[in-house]
Amino acid sequence: MSEDAxxxxxxxEAQLAEVLGRLQALEAxxxxxxxxxSQPPSKDQxxxxxxxxxxxxxxxxxxxxxxxxxxKMAEHVDEVVVLPLTGHCACGHAWESVNAQxxxxxxxxxxxxxxxxxTEYRADVKVCPGCRHRQHxxxxxxxxxxxxxxxxxxxxxxxxxxxxxxxxxxxSEILEALCGARPSDGxxxxxxxxxxxxxVDFETQLKAALLxxxxxxxxxxxxxxxxxxxxxxxVSCAQLTLYGHHAHRGFAALEAMNVLPQFKGxxxxxxxxxxxxxxxxxxxxxxxxxxxxxxxxxxxxxIWAGELRDALRLVYHQQKDGTITPELVVxxxxxxxxxxxxxxxxxxxxxxxxxxxxxxxxxxxxxLALRCQQHRExxxxxxxxxxxxxxxxxxxxDIRPWCVKRKVSGGFRSEEGGQHFARIRSYISTLRKQxxxxxxxxxxxxxxxxxxxxxxx
Length: 457
Known about the structure:
- Helices cover 44% and strands 9% of the residues.
- It has a five-stranded mixed β-sheet, with helices on both faces. A two-stranded antiparallel ribbon has the order 1-2.
- The longest helix has 27 residues, at 5-31.
- It has helices at residues 5-31, 151-163, 168-179, 185-198, 200-211, 251-257, 286-299, 303-321, 326-346, 364-374, 376-379, 393-408, 415-433, 438-447; strands at 125-127, 134-136, 215-225, 228-236, 241-246, 266-269, 281-284.
- The chain is of the alpha/beta class.
- Helix 2 (151-163) crosses helix 3 (168-179), helix 7 (286-299) runs antiparallel to helix 8 (303-321) and helix 9 (326-346) packs antiparallel against helix 10 (364-374).
- It is built from 14 helices and seven strands.
């Protein structure tokens, strides 16, 4: 063997180790789904994904004590149809000669025949006898042109498009089928723009209210504008929702929304790096952590990850059921630290690659263990701060409609259109959270007397 054989062997071993690492990473990536990573369920294979929920032994469907809902008879009716009893009894007596002793009622609840109600405003025209000046009476503010649609038509168009993601053309078709009005795509777009302009004051008050909340949730998802990727961001709590559409996913989007950079409370998120630039106190989503630990245990054979996942699930359910004690918390935190140390030992630092600049890429297991150590307080905050949730489900539920919109009606034609849509969706989501009627709210926007939700909840 020559003198340079040993360096050659080392070089080959390093290359082989790199190739094996890349192969393992590719296999793990192919095996990922929504239960083992942050990948959305829409990208899963068509089999049923695994759930983090534990079986309770209860049967499916409504449980004992559940208050059911059924269609009940109305106290006030619009029309009464009397059905007289005619013919003959089985004995041959004619029913017409017998007085009724009572009535049995049944009701049919249906929509009235829909059609446009046309209101014509006729302004008096007069000519001054002195100077011959011709003048007509002023028209109401909501009648600027010779012919226009009213607030209910505008409200219904925005309700279909913004609340239920019906595309523009199909929105026109529905309106024509229901009431005979077929506004153009441009008219519906103008409706969206007008609604967004009239909701500026709502958005201002919404941002001020969010800054007063003790805990906020944040998330983001992709949104297309003319085929190019942009981002829809959400900042929310149980009663309020703010959406923001921006060309970037990073900190510039948060600055444009103008809430989180000033927020000093607790911010729940999924450990996306830009959130750590904020001055808020951080809370990391436990559901994301459970999925990542499952992925490491199932696809990378990381024993410590499976044990940490089981321990984290157990302490979460103890905390949720109210059976957690200070002693159990201390014991879990010790086990948490020990398992992270085991994770770092199982994933030693990767050696720098000769000739390659920048930081050396580490294994997923090491990155996760280091993140949990670095942000230990944020990961475990749900055990110590009352009112802090375990997961970021609030933001994920609020961001999910945008995934539906992306599938049903695609993206936007302009950045301005995305921003208008985001403001209207903020209004719709906030009304729904507070149990207010979205339809009445959107009609009020076009009447000029916007129904405002509560900002003090």
